Amino acid sequence: MITFERVTKRYPDGTVAVDDLDLEVPAGKIMVLVGPSGCGKTTSLRMINRLVEPTSGRIVLDGRDVADADPAELRRGIGYVIQQTGLFPHRTVEDNIATVPLLNGWDKRRARSRARELMELVGLAPELARRYPYQLSGGQQQRVGVARALAADPPVLLMDEPFSAVDPIVRASLQDELIRLQAELRKTVVLVTHDVEEAIKVGDLVAVYRPGGHLAQVDSPERLLANPLDSYVQDFIGFDRGIRRLSFFTAAGLELDPDVLMPMDASAAEGVATAKRLGQPWLLVVDTDGRPFGWSAVGDLEALPETALLASAAMAPVGHTFRPETDSLRAALDATVLSRTERAVGVDANGRAIGVTTYERLRDAIRAAEEAADEADGAVGAGMPAGPPHEEPR
Ligand SMILES: Nc1ncnc2c1ncn2[C@@H]1O[C@H](COP(=O)(O)OP(=O)(O)O)[C@@H](O)[C@H]1O
Ligand SMILES: [Mg+2]
Question: Roughly what angle, to the nearest 10 degrees, separates helices 329-338 and 359-377?
């Protein structure tokens, strides 16, 4: 959908911001450009909508060299979101959002009703329509910026550090919102960020830039975490990529132990007998609907009268649960690490306990998932040694 062909940008002062860039952005995907400050990300982005003209090479959008397009017309088909939102301070929220439809000749009424639709789409309450940007929080302003960029329903969306100015919690929710929106809208998105976590979270593909406007690696987030091409990419991604990679492995293949589940109306004696038979120090007590109720230690049960019900035993809190069908191995590991019992409970869509995992079971599932991924990747399948990543002089 968008192709950079040997694109170079040299600014008049001689700075080479982008150097011989080849890059393909597939239609309907989110391509994230990530790298340290000054490596040419913004310049790359702004050449797509011709806010910057390349010195050489060309950019093809939908089969057409953007240099042949009328810039104003080109930009109407490309939504553009920037860090400080660039909202018009003297216009209300709805009029900011309606800017492009109005430029496109819509009447005010229709443009405003479109603005209301978009506010709903990006999660803005309708009563904010008449406010001015300064009356909104940073996160709300950023949502207005996104709504405005989407107003004319452009097939392409360019976003330059769209979430960098807001605090981490708001940023996470804006990222989630973008992922949700994209599942619905399927725009071709190019998003610039310096935050590698953000790149890995929202990108279908991630282009890692090196200083000097060169690409170090373009890959899916999974592959980037699994196979950084050289030490630059490895350092840039950071030290905990092993854990982060687990986000891409489903917990569906994790073997759960259902035998330690005990109904709360079972007796202490039954509990002790079950725990001993299984050789397990903890039982998971479930309520009458089968939902996890608490962890019961075999030592505590032994101190109870034999006929006492499990419901009356001292219990450790269930802690975080996970859903094997929809959650990742990272979520399962996280739940296990946080649990006082070093065990975590897998639940179904109705919150009923399916079974329990332990570190041993997690370790086996992680190993199996990594092997399957490496094999699918061809690295192991092709008979290459699974050694350290190839090093390249910097
Ligand atoms: N208008 C300009 N004139 C001269 N140099 C510029 C201009 N805009 C950006 N640069 C330089 O080009 C390089 C890349 O900038 P930019 O594309 O903004 O990087 P990034 O978005 O990755 O931080 C930097 O060295 C920057 O200083
Ligand atoms: Mg920039």
Answer: 160
What is the chain's length? 394
Report phi then psi at 168, rounded to 5. Answer: -55, -35
Which residue has a Cα nearest atom 25 of ligand 1?
Answer: 38
* Residue of 4, 7, 11, 194 to mutate, ligand 1, most atoms within 8 A of C-beta: 11
| Ligand lying nearest the CA atom of residue 82 | 2
Judge contact between 309 and 270, C-beta under 8 A.
no
Domain total of the chain: 2
One domain for residues 168 and 108: yes
φ/ψ of residue 134, rounded to 5: -65, -15
Rounded to 5 degrees, φ, ψ at 328 are -95, 170
CATH number at residue 325: 3.10.580.10
Give first-to-last CA distance, the chain, whole Å.
Answer: 32
Are residues 256 and 207 both part of a single domain? Answer: no
* Per-residue pLDDT at 381 exceeds 50: no
pLDDT value of position 164: 80
Q: Inform me whether the pLDDT recorded for 390 exceeds 50.
A: no
For residue 333, count CB atoms less than 10 angstroms from its CB and return exposed for 0-12, middle for 13-18, buried for 19 or more.
buried
Around ligand 1, the residues with Cβ closer than 6 Å are: 11, 13, 15, 17, 35, 37-43
**Tell me, what's the pLDDT at 379?**
55
* Residue at 377 is within a domain: no
Q: What is the 49 CA–ligand 2 centroid distance (Å)?
A: 15
State the residue for tokens 């070093």. Answer: 342
pLDDT in tens, 234-289: 999 886 888 888 988 999 989 999 999 999 999 999 999 999 999 999 999 999 99
Nearest-angstrom CA–CA distance, 339 and 361: 15
- Contact present, 94 and 120 (Cβ < 8 Å): no
Residue appearing with tokens 């699918």: 376
Give the count of beta carbons closer than 10 Å to the beta carbon of residue 184: 8
> Amino acid identity, residue 344?
A
CB 203 within 8 A of CB 221: yes
> Are the C-beta atoms of 83 and 164 separated by less than 8 Å?
yes
Q: Domain range holding 120?
A: 2-248
